[in-house]
Amino acid sequence: MKEDANARLKRLTMRSWRRGMKEMDLILGPYADARLADMPIADLAHYDSLLSENDQDLYSWITGAALPPEHFSALIAEIAAFARAHKVSAAG
Question: Can you give the residue range of the structural domain that contains 73?
Answer without folding.
Answer: 5-85
